[in-house]
Amino acid sequence: MLTIKKIHNIIGGELKDANNKESNEINDFETVYHLIKSKKTAYFSPNKETWSRELGRNKNALDGNDLVDRQNGEIGLIITEKYISDLTFNTPQIIIEDSVQALKKLAIYIRNQYKNPVIAITGSMGKSSTRMLITSLLSDFNVLENRGNNNVRAAIYSNMLKLIKNPDFAVIETSMNAINYLENTAIYLKPDIAIITGIGEAHFSTFKSVKDIAKIKTRIFEGLSDNGTAIINNDTLYADYLVNKAQEKTNNVLTYGINKDSKVDLSVDNIRYNKGNIEFLIENQNNEKEVYQINTISKGMVYNALASMLVLKSLNLPIKKKSLKKFKPFSKILSLKEIQTKSHKLTLLDDTHNASLPAMINAIRAFNSQTKFYSGNKIIAIGKISDLG
């Protein structure tokens, strides 16, 4: 919790319309105006030019001030570069010169006050699914995570602001945009656990080699504390390089994999592809083999499950099989849908959420794992992937 006066002291600027309101409490921040529902929420109004220049926001997006409902009295504070003079209610406003710099300054301040674990995830594939799996396994707790798969720099800072609500855990996926050479938000996010889900042929419209992509991904480790934990997919491209870079920052490096010759901290003993789900065996501490089930059909999701389970082990928390079994990814990640037309019935395997070469290969393998359960024609429709350049 922060007061309006404290926020003003942190970010500077000119405080207006705050007579007798300086001590009002703020316990949430929003950069998306229509999501504000409380007088204890502050609105960071995105200035069109500043956010486009500094954060790469769409130049055609509306200015944050233009989105403000002048009749809305259910808002605690507006932080903006331009004073809004025609509000019906006397809402306090902090007028700053640069809304992005103010956003960062306040986000970093709030992150530094937050004491619970922060888990950050990056990779060429599986970021969102791994983040959602971890959140599912932490379902008994209050968890902060990304909205949808919004994982660019602005989203990282916005999530850091939301740490003011003091969740039990924060699980944040970060894109290349958030840790590239323009700016590495991991330094400010300071994850206690950092995960690289894999390196693959994605982002070739920007980077010319897979090694370049691997180098960028390892920047997530730069934010780790000395006793932080790095978790790495040991079956991915440049795995040894990823491990070496992690070891430069921390001694706590854990690996996972499926390949039988892998020497890893967590692996599966067997994978069974059923109709609509996967079962896999993992040996527990008592040398007993336990069966886990996920209601997806992707080998890639097994990798994501292993990463998530290592997170729970790092946090000294039990892995609940029911939470893993109940997990559901985004609706268009290898989602099986029954469709009935006038002439026939078909099952559609929808993977249109994904758009990278590793995801495409994963989808083809998932398709092949299911063909034995269906009769009739089997058809794959593959779209062009612009991200490959």
Topology, element by element:
Layout: E1 2-3, H1 4-11, E2 14-16, E3 25-26, E4 28-30, E5 41-44, H2 48-55, E6 77-80, E7 93-95, H3 99-113, E8 118-122, H4 127-137, E9 143-145, H5 153-161, E10 169-173, H6 176-179, H7 186-189, E11 193-196, H8 210-217, E12 229-233, H9 239-247, E13 252-257, E14 266-267, E15 270-274, E16 277-283, E17 289-294, H10 299-314, H11 321-326, E18 335-340, E19 345-350, H12 357-370
Parallel strand pairs: 4-5, 5-6, 6-7, 8-10, 8-11, 9-10, 11-12, 12-13, 13-14
Antiparallel strand pairs: 1-3, 2-7, 15-16, 16-17, 18-19
Helix pairs in contact: 3-5, 4-10
Descriptive account of the structure:
With 389 residues, the chain is α/β, with parallel strands linked by helices. 29% of the residues lie in helices and 21% in strands. The protein has helices spanning 4-11, 48-55, 99-113, 127-137, 153-161, 176-179, 186-189, 210-217, 239-247, 299-314, 321-326, 357-370; strands at residues 2-3, 14-16, 25-26, 28-30, 41-44, 77-80, 93-95, 118-122, 143-145, 169-173, 193-196, 229-233, 252-257, 266-267, 270-274, 277-283, 289-294, 335-340, 345-350. Strands 9-10-8-11-12-13-14 form a seven-stranded parallel sheet, with helices on both faces. β9 (143-145), α5 (153-161) and β10 form a beta-alpha-beta unit. α3 (99-113) packs across α5. It starts with a strand and ends in a 19-residue tail after the last helix. The mean pLDDT is 92.
